[in-house]
Amino acid sequence: MSAFVDTMLSTATGAGGQAKGMTTGEPNNPRRRTWAEVHDQASRMAGALVEGGAEPGAAIAVLAADPAEIAPAVQAVWMAGGSTTMLHQPTARTDLAEWAEDTIKVLSMIDSKLVLLGSPFDALSGVLDEHGIGYRKMDDLAGGEPLTTPVPVDEESTALLQLTSGSTADPKAVRITHGNLMSNAEAMRIAAALDTTSDTMISWLPLFHDMGMVGFLTIPMLFGIELVKVTPVDFLARPTLWPDLMSRYGGTITAAPNFAYSIAARRMSTVEDDNAFDLSKMRLALNGAEPIDPAAVHAFTEAGARFGLRPESIMCAYGMAEATLAVAFAPVFTGLSVDVIDPDQLEASHRAVPVPEGTPNARTFPLLGPPVPGLEIEVIDEERNVLGERQVGQLRVRGEAVTPGYLTVDGPLATQNAEGWLETGDEGYVVDGQVVVCGRRKDVIIMGGRNIYPTDIERAACSVDGVRPGNAVAVRLDAGTRRERFAVVVESKSAGDDDVEKTMRKEITARVVDAVGLRPFAVVVLKPGSLPKTPSGKLRRSAATSLVPVG
Predict the structure, then answer these.
(1) Is residue 277 part of a domain?
(2) Which domain holds residue 120?
(3) pTM beyond 0.85, yes or no
(4) 209, 237, 265: which is the final residue of a domain?
(5) Which residues does 46 contact at the CB level (< 8 Å), separation at least 6?
(6) Are strands 158-163 and 172-177 parallel, antiparallel or unpaired?
(7) Closest CA to 450 of 395, 516, 515, 401
(8) Rounded to whole angstroms, how far apart are CA atoms 440 and 184?
(9) Strand locations in 333-466 (E)
(10) What is the pLDDT along the chain (551 residues), one digit of tens a residue?
(11) What residue stretches are annotated with the AMP-dependent synthetase/ligase domain (predicted)?
(12) What is the Cα–Cα distance from 474 to 239, expressed in whole angstroms?
């Protein structure tokens, strides 16, 4: 049995499994089950899977919305010796025909012969029938005979096939082994100083995303930590549900991307009652899903201060599915620390030269902490020479948690070189042992010999009144040519009002010029919901190119 499965079952059948558990169904129908109760259901589902012919190593996909259904289902898959793939969920705006086509492509890519269906997606069983894809409804698995002895697997067996949130139409899955998963989980337990007796984790993150699946389901289930889990739909319907859950359940750990911290800050700032929330127990509010926006962090801590939120609770991090989840964690309870550097040296010389805080046009990057235990990071140049401190290049990572490869539509693809290094595709540097990420290499805009990071442009655009927070994209045009330039595309509720749009375009242009010293080729204002995004909500810069008129 792998160490991962052994630890999970030891937790479920031990004292921690009886004392700790997960609460789902908030805000309307909250229900708490201990991890022992989740395991009891999982063992019955695993028994039904094995009896139904599921073979060791089988890739079993899961499509459900309710965390109460998903938790025992994924544990059942692991007990049955299979690997789990969380399928992307269709939303109200999804074209079901396109979703079905993409899903069938994914199932073929991972060679999955079985999908576990839960509410409300069991209604999509007809789509699977049309394509000859086998499925079992989760409700039908609950009556199986318990599987008392898990199917044995080794450390190199696949535990999780994590679908990436890429910007292309072709899917790709990161192959995470049992050894990868256990190594990174243990590293996060140490780096975040997890306490199974006192910590309570609060999350609304989607379970088809690595942070939601690994960070806020697998880890609490593995180690026996109290968890309150709702869905992204619940959060978006009422963003103050998030701080409300922190208050009522005494939440100590949570995580979210920039846009969520911005939304929560705005909503909390409109609450008149100073006693509406109690955020004093929060010790880790993690931000690491994308380049961290210091303004979003400050807005959240300022709005939460009157409810007892301590700014030191912010934890900046660097993560990627290719390293299972965590790559670097800032030291616990140190808050947001930034590196202020000379923009000219960064753009022209690829060096992060520090300047005093408050220097005009200085670049500010959050310090993301040292690599978590078991991982190491280097910075390399275009010829793969290792660079020194404060020299900017591509980050690469090596260690026990790093995936051995991808599954793609064209077959397996290795990720590591002969020495075990994985190139991340991220630009960054190291200072005093801490990692700094500047942006994705493929998104860097090159003009006049300067490297312009799109996040600088996007943050400048988002500072303009009327632009939806987190909904601005800097788009490369004529990339890689001497004519390379960029445009800015934003969402606004005022889109369609010619006078307001004209004012916004003028103001966005001025803010961008102030920020990066370059004028955008075009500024496009669109209605909310127009920008292309990945299933996990990240903006797809390359796909936004088609939104810019270049005639």
Answers:
(1) no
(2) 3-237
(3) yes
(4) 237
(5) 75, 76, 77, 79, 80, 144, 146, 147, 150
(6) antiparallel
(7) 516
(8) 23
(9) 338-341, 363-366, 375-380, 393-399, 405-408, 411-414, 422-431, 434-440, 445-447, 450-452
(10) 899 999 999 999 999 999 999 999 999 999 999 999 999 999 999 999 999 999 999 999 999 999 999 999 999 999 999 999 999 887 767 777 778 888 888 999 999 999 999 988 887 888 888 888 899 999 999 888 999 899 999 999 999 999 986 434 578 999 999 999 999 999 999 999 999 999 999 999 999 999 999 999 999 999 999 999 999 999 999 999 999 999 999 999 999 988 899 899 999 999 999 999 999 999 999 998 667 888 889 999 999 999 999 999 999 999 999 999 999 999 999 999 999 999 889 988 999 999 999 898 898 999 999 999 999 999 999 999 999 999 999 999 999 999 999 999 999 999 999 999 999 999 999 999 999 999 888 888 888 778 888 888 988 999 999 999 888 999 888 877 778 889 999 999 999 999 999 999 999 999 999 888 889 999 999 999 889 877 666 778 878 888 888 75
(11) 30-407
(12) 27
Give, as one character, the DSSP assignment of residue 231.
Answer: -
Q: How many angstroms separate the Cα of 136 from the Cα of each of 133, 208, 266, 358, 468? A: 10, 19, 43, 59, 41
What is the spatial distance between Cα 14 and Cα 487, in angstroms, rounded to a whole number? 57
3-state secondary structure of 19: helix
We report the CATH number of the domain holding residue 535 as 3.30.300.30
Query: Mind giving me the DSSP string for 484-523?
Result: -EEEEEEEETTTT-HHHHHHHHHHHHHHHHHHHS---SEE
Q: Please check whether residue 417 lies inside any domain of the structure.
A: no
Distance CA 31, CA 22 (A): 8
The CATH number of whichever domain residue 46 belongs to comes to 3.40.50.12780
Is the residue at 456 inside a domain?
yes
The whole-angstrom separation of Cα 224 and Cα 16 is 5
Look at phi and psi of residue 254 and say left if phi exceeds 0, alpha if psi is from -120 to 50, else beta. Answer: beta
Tell me how far apart the alpha carbons of residues 328 and 316 are, in angstroms, rounded to a whole number: 9
| Three-state secondary-structure class, residue 373 | coil
CB 63 within 8 A of CB 118: yes
What gap in Å lies between CA 73 and CA 80, rounded to an integer?
11
The pairing of beta strand 314-319 with beta strand 284-287: parallel
What is the DSSP secondary structure assignment for residue 217, as one 8-state letter? I
Q: How many CB atoms lie within 10 A of CB 143?
A: 10
Instruction: Using DSSP, state whether 177 is helix, strand or coil.
Output: strand
For residue 413, being part of any structural domain is answered with no
Residue identified by tokens 């916004």 is: 504
Per DSSP (E only), the strands in 243-295 are 253-255, 284-287
Residue 292: phi and psi, rounded to 5, are -75, 135
Look at residues 193, 220, 237 and tell me which one is the last residue of a structural domain.
Answer: 237
Looking at the structure of the chain, the number of domains it has is 2
The SS3 of residue 412 is strand
